[in-house]
Structures are given as structure tokens and as C-alpha cells.
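Worked example (supplementary).
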Amino acid sequence: MIQNQDQNRIRLYLLGKLADGEKEQIEHELLANDDLFEEVLVVEEELVDEYIAGALTNEERARFELHFLVTPERQQSLRFAHALRRYVTTHASERSDVSGSFLPGFFSKHSRILGLAATVVAITIMAGALWFFFLRQTSPPTFATVTLVMSPNTRNEGVQAIRIKPPAEQTLRLYLVLPNPKMPAAGYHVQLLDVNGESRSLKVAGQRNQSIFVEIPGSQLKRGQYALNLSEVNADGTEQRIPGSYYFTIE
Amino acid sequence: MKKEWVISQEAFDTMLDWLDADRERAGFKYEAIRLRLIKIFTCRGCQAAEELADETINRVIGRIVEIAKGYRGDPALYFYGVAQKVYLEYSRKARGPLAHVPMDYAAVSLSAQAVVMVEDVEPEYRCLEHCLEQLLPENRDLVVRYYQQERQAKIDHRKMLAGELGIAVNALRLRAHRIRLTLQRCVLECLEQQPAS
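After joint prediction of all chains, the assembly is encoded as:
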């Protein structure tokens, strides 16, 4: 039987965090123990799901991208997991609507008051169904996620920017690793600059562990190089620019 | 590194006999070892994991007569020893361990090796819908329910679901995994059948 500590060990193994001796130990077991092999497959799936959900720490995310996603099979697993997540997100709400649809029939067999209540419920369900119909027209947004680390350079010359190919219908979620996470500011302001010198402010969509993230619809990004400048927002509302930039290139 | 191995049926049969006296069980063990070798090479960051697993097996078969005579212990572990050597040769050729992750995380991203995964999954989604229709309704329902929610809510939700089904959370986890595996295989087959765009 697989214990929690085995699950943790497997997780570290898959992220390339085990020392050579421990790695060989787990590989030995993997060959000889059917349960452990299946557990490796399960933990792999869980890692992929956590990656998509943005639930990995910065270090895990980096290891996942550099160590785990190295083979076409695993990249295919990631694509499958994205599709599954989209399906589940859509159909979880469908399930709750369906379970509600049995109520009118039940109530109509009882008093007129309950019949009236059933009518109200039916109208609510119809309204819900209409809402759901329109909701389905716009499927839940899917994200292409990238983690960026600040470059101390103030110009992009010599910086090897990460290249991204976001499809137009997707939103690009950029995780910006904070340069000084031990001393977090009251807030952050992010500015996006393109090669033509045009800039615009981006709303910080969230903060997690040692990074913040911003989201940009793929349709708003043209090909070319971009830089993100980060400013700390103090409690009194004043801003202080943090030297350096996050660079990326849209292909 | 890759040699053109010529494996005789006789040598292959000797290897099967070495794995198990019962031919059916031997075949099963052979498949299990091959799958696990592929997984190990994958986990070590090898792009050609399948090829390396086959290379390992071919090397064992190439010396099977002497191995079968002299080696005592679980044959799977002998394969592992050979796999280690195959990996060493492969990584030497690829100049150092593959997908090496520097310990200093901050140094990682600007090395510009970060894999950027962009998820245009429309073909997968269409295939997934098709494959879900082929599942038993209770399995389809389980998949949707198992994979909903996030973080703590997900943990609580899965406990509740396991309670509803009268099984332990880990048993539910394995059940969901097996259904997912079936689905993933179905989606892959479906994608292969689609015309290339």
C-alpha cells in the first residue's frame, strides 16, 4: 500500500529533486512494485493538474517546465489535461442545473401553493438554463502560462527573452517572480511596453507565493518584443519603480 | 550509440523463459518491464525514451544465454543495471544530464530554456467529448465530479465523493486515474485519426 511519504517522494522524483541515490532507489522499486508504478502515473497526472491550476510553487513550476515537460508524451498529457479541465468546468455547472430540474414534477403533485412554488422554480430553472446557454457561448477562458524572472538590464539588448506563441483565443497569464519577495510591498503596478515605445498599465490579477501574475488576452498581443516594468505601490499610494524588467517575445 | 540488433526468435524465447516459465506470464512481465524502462528514461529527461528502453532490452537479449545461467535475482533489476549504462552513454552523447535544473531557481528563467506551453486544445476537446460518450454513464459522472473544484475545496469534495461511493479516498483516486487513462488513450487514437491540418 502506498503511503503519503511515498507520494511525496514520487513527486520529488518527477520534478527531478531527488539525489542520485534516492532516485535509483525509487527506480528500483518502480521496476519491482506494480502499485508504485501506478502511483507514479497518478502523481504525474496530479502534477499536470496542479500546473494548469497554478497551484505549484515557483520552484516547482520552473522544475516542471524544465524537467518534467521534456517529452512529447508529457506535453500531450498537458494538452489532454487542459481539455479535461475545460470539460469539467463546463459540465460541473450543467450537472447542478440538471439535478434541479426534477423539483417541479415533485412539487406539482402537492398543494396549489407548492404548485405555485414549482412554477417559480421552473421559471428560475428556465432563466438559469438561458443563462447557462449564453454562458456556454463563451467557453471558460483557457490560459497559456509563463513564468518570468526579472532581468537587471534596463534595456533588452543582450537579454534572451522567452518566446511565446499564444493563440488569439487564449489569455496569456504571466507569473512575475518578485525580486524581493521577503519584503512585499502593499501593492504592485505593472506596465507593459512594446518595441514602438507604447505602454499601458496592466491590472495585477493575483499574487501567489513569491510572484504576482498579470493576464493579457492573446488577441491584444502583436508579434514583437515586450517588456514589463514593475513598481511597488506604497500604503500612501505612491509608486516606486523597481529597477530591471521582465522581457518576452511574442512570435 | 544505437546498434542494429539482430535478435533471433530463439534468443527472445530464452529471455521469456528466463522471465517466467509460464509463457503468458513471461509476456506480461516483458511488457511491464518495457513500460517501466520507458518511464524511467522519460523521468530522466530522455526524449527518445522508447528507443532507449528497446536498446536496453536488446542488449540483455544479446547476452541472454550467459545471463540466464549466471544471474540470480529479479530479472527486472538486471534490466535496470543495463538501463543505467545505456543512459550514461546517452547522456554523455547529449553533453551532460538532460533537462538539468540549476539549483538556483532565479537563474533558470533567463537561461531561456523555459518550455512555453501554449494550449490550443480544441482538437483534444472535441475528441474528449467523443470519448466521454463512450464511457459508462457512472464513469463519466465520476470523472466530472472527481476533477472539479480547486485546492482545499477539491480535497473536501473528493472525501465526500469517496464517502458517497463507500470507498477510501485513495481507492477513488486510483479509480479516477484508470478512467482518465482510458480516456487519454481514446483521445490519442481519435487525434491520430483526424486529418492533419
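Two points are worth noting when inspecting this output. The radius of gyration of chain B is 22 Å. Residues 144 and 176 of chain B are 10 Å apart (CA to CA).
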